[in-house]
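Tokens for chain A. Residues wanted.
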């Protein structure tokens, strides 16, 4: 008779321990059984493929306005054999705008998350490393860094991104820095917390008792065992970054080049014709929501798979 309920979960954990299953291997097995993880992974894969192979998915170029003569003040041409999703208000192919908009969202999302992760992880390693080894100097450095992080956290992420984007000259680099700055305190606090937790583990006490240098204990033992939650958070932050890219473009702080397709800018252009042609706003809105949902579903499933308290 096959056990069910709590007994089945206990048996799974016991068998994992007997076989010596690693954390990541066990997480991968649980992800494959999680419908949310599968749905999120499919959405993420589709988004990446569309972004990478955008030139192969359409025969037109974004933002050219080559069909502007077909747009009238009263109506924008809808779906046809030549234009699957119709034209936009600027006379460009809507499908082309959407697939190239996916490329922009992917570039900005990944770049800003990588920059935010690098800066936030650096602060987290400094604060967590000095906090884990203890001492007056270590405690002072930890407190100083975390007070800076608290200041950044006190400002809403989108407001912080808008403020930075408005100060810096509007270009691709400014958008990446603006979104990354809002992610820095999240990564810093998370990595510091994980390192402080690992710093109280038995293996750290054993390494210290054997005479290992504190720097080696932090970099070779504490840090490698603390990065898991940070990697999971990076997946979740990609969803936030994609939304913030669209938000900055919607507020007029995005890329100035009209030939660069962006979902946020498409929403702005659709406002004047929303009553007559709501599809101009519906299509880019759906792309933003579905893409962010995919990263969120996969990130939450990955977090549950790596959390021992939620293992099934």
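Reply:
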């Amino acid at each position: 008779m096959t056990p069910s309920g709590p007994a089945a979960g206990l048996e799974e954990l016991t068998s994992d321990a007997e076989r010596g299953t690693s954390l990541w291997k066990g997480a991968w097995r649980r992800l494959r059984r999680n419908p949310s993880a599968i749905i999120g992974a499919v959405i993420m894969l589709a988004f990446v493929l569309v972004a990478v192979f955008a030139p192969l998915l359409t025969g037109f170029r974004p933002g050219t306005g080559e069909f502007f003569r077909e747009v009238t003040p009263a109506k924008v041409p809808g779906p046809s054999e030549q234009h699957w999703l119709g034209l936009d208000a600027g006379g460009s192919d809507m499908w082309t705008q959407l697939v190239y908009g996916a490329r922009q969202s992917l570039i900005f999302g990944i770049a800003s998350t990588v920059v935010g992760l690098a800066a936030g992880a650096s602060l987290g390693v400094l604060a967590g490393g000095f906090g884990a080894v203890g001492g007056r100097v270590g405690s002072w450095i930890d407190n100083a860094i975390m007070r800076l992080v608290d200041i950044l956290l006190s400002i809403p992420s989108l407001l912080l991104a808008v403020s930075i984007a408005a100060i810096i000259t509007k270009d691709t680099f400014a958008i990446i820095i603006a979104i990354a700055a809002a992610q820095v305190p999240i990564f810093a606090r998370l990595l510091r917390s994980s390192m402080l937790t690992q710093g109280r583990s038995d293996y750290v006490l054993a390494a210290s008792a054997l005479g290992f240098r504190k720097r080696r204990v932090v970099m070779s033992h504490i840090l490698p065992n603390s990065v898991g939650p940070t990697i999971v958070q990076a997946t979740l932050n990609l969803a936030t970054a994609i939304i913030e890219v669209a938000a900055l473009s919607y507020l007029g702080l995005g890329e100035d080049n009209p030939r660069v397709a962006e979902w946020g800018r498409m929403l702005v252009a659709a406002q004047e014709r929303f009553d007559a042609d709501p599809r101009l706003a519906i299509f880019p809105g759906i792309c933003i929501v579905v893409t962010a949902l995919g990263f969120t579903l996969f990130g939450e499933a990955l977090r549950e798979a790596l959390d021992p308290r939620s293992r099934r």
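Residues 5-18 have pLDDT under 50 and may be disordered. Residues 94-133 form the longest helix (40 residues).
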